[in-house]
Amino acid sequence: MKKLVSGILIGIMIMGFSQSVFASSSILIEVYQSIKRIVVNTDDLNLPSDTPAFIYNGSTYVPLRSLAEYLGYTVSWDASKQTVKIYQDCGSEDINNIRKLCIRGTEVQLPNDVIVDGILVNSDFGYISNYLPAIILKRNHSSVAINTSMGLVINRVIQKGEEDSFDFLDPYIIGDLVENKKISPKKP
């Protein structure tokens, strides 16, 4: 009888131990909450008091939702895929009403007669695919596609007499795949 009771107790202990080992994927870490302010450009990012920023192993951790929403993004959680999704929700805003672009980190005001005509996200031309997505700007009957983060012109269709339609971009563009040349940006 003693062997049976001992066997049951050992079995329960092994089962309990293995469940606690295999069920837990969390670890306890020591963090430093010495961050007093977070400044984005020149504005303070106000974090909820229940989700403070902290430093761990030399890296700064900021609540993703707070930062993303501050920057104008929408955050959602897909429980079935265990995935956080961050995206810009354009809502019903017409893309043609965009008046400013950010090219290589600099805000660029679009002239009144230039419209954002679309976003190029896929191309049949293999070499262009490496430089997508690109913003398509249209002025009169001419258009240009630029990768705004890299400052590259990746395509252009310029009508006769409209050759200077996109000269306002020159200070911000560092390369032109159409003409296969590197450009030194001019001062704005």
Structure described in brief:
The chain has 3 helices and 14 strands. With 188 residues, it is of the alpha+beta class.
How does this model look, in words?
With 188 residues, this protein is an alpha+beta fold. It has two domains: 39-87, no CATH class; 95-182, no CATH class. The protein contains three helices and 14 strands. The protein has helices at residues 2-23, 64-70, 126-129; strands at 39-40, 43-44, 54-56, 59-61, 74-78, 83-87, 100-103, 106-109, 114-120, 134-139, 142-147, 152-157, 175-176, 181-182. It has a six-stranded mixed beta sheet, with no helix packed on it.
Secondary-structure map:
Elements: H1 2-23, E1 39-40, E2 43-44, E3 54-56, E4 59-61, H2 64-70, E5 74-78, E6 83-87, E7 100-103, E8 106-109, E9 114-120, H3 126-129, E10 134-139, E11 142-147, E12 152-157, E13 175-176, E14 181-182
Parallel strand pairs: 12-13
Antiparallel strand pairs: 1-2, 3-4, 5-6, 7-8, 9-10, 10-11, 11-12, 13-14
Features:
188 residues, alpha+beta, 2 domains, six-stranded mixed beta sheet, two-stranded antiparallel sheet, 30% strand, disordered N terminus
